[in-house]
Structure of Response regulator:
Amino acid sequence: MISIERTPRLVLVVDDDVKVTELLRRVLEADGHEVVVAFDGRTVVDEVATRCADLVILDIDMPYSNGFEICRQIKSDPRTRIIPILILTGVAAGDRIRAWELGADEFLTKPFKPQEVAARARSLLRHKDLVDALDSAESVVFSLVRALEGKSPYTHGHSGRVMQYALALAKSFGLSEADMDILRRGVLLHDIGKISTPDVILNKPGQLTPEEIEVIRLHPIEGARIVGPLRSARDAIPLIRWHHERMDGKGYPDGLMGGMIPLSVRVLSVADMYDALSSDRPYRSAMTHNQCQEVMVENAKSGGLDPELVRAFFKCFTGRIGAASVAEPKGMASEFPR
């Protein structure tokens, strides 16, 4: 049987006490880890990012930059925030609470037993393995989105543009940072279900048959099914499943009505329709900004989009988006599903 040798983990130990750092180095290297030592906080944050550290063991009381500030910087940087931090210190309980609030993952008080440090390090690294696995799975899904957009010149860059519109509109309505983050993921993933839609339907230059329309209308359900196993993306499922619902309850797949449709989903629907109208499609040329406004206002009047969000969208973007083509709007109510 062939065994696969695991790459040593990189542990960054930050403490101004030489005796402590040497003890930790011996303990951690005996456990198979690679250890890098720093004696103050001047370059720690850059070291963590550039060396791709797997774990940071951090003292609180140090010269130049204390452990609280280092912890805050590591946990607020998108490049490093998932890296676990183990705090080692002999200070009071109040500092322990502060460290938790700044994002520290574990806390051990000096004096400590070396075997306890080793055990906590193994536990934190196992947890990071799980996070990395989830991140890898999510990366695969986002790669599918890029593959989907690469299938057709008509959809290239669609999700990125929709995200720009949706985030600006959501910000004007005061969505929280947490909701904005969910919206960001939902926008990027909203059309992932089309990965299972035949290209011959997506790129058909003429009108779709009733049977082809039914196939297109499966993509929100398929998208929710694809993303469902990803715990890190489950909050985005309503955006994926419901972005074709209508205010009058005549949308799909669930026929939700009015306030039953979450605000973030209604925001996505407005942004999604604008980009669909203002982009070239196989069955028509792109519309101008004014033509898009005319079609979307009419859609809202007929019970489709949220009228308040449509008004806010054009208040937000009029004058900021250049005209596309001069094609006349035609039949968009039936053609929009693509």
Summary: The first helix runs from residue 18 to 30. The chain is about 50% helix and 5% strand. The two ends are 51 Å apart (CA to CA). Residues 1-5, 322-336 have pLDDT under 50 and may be disordered.
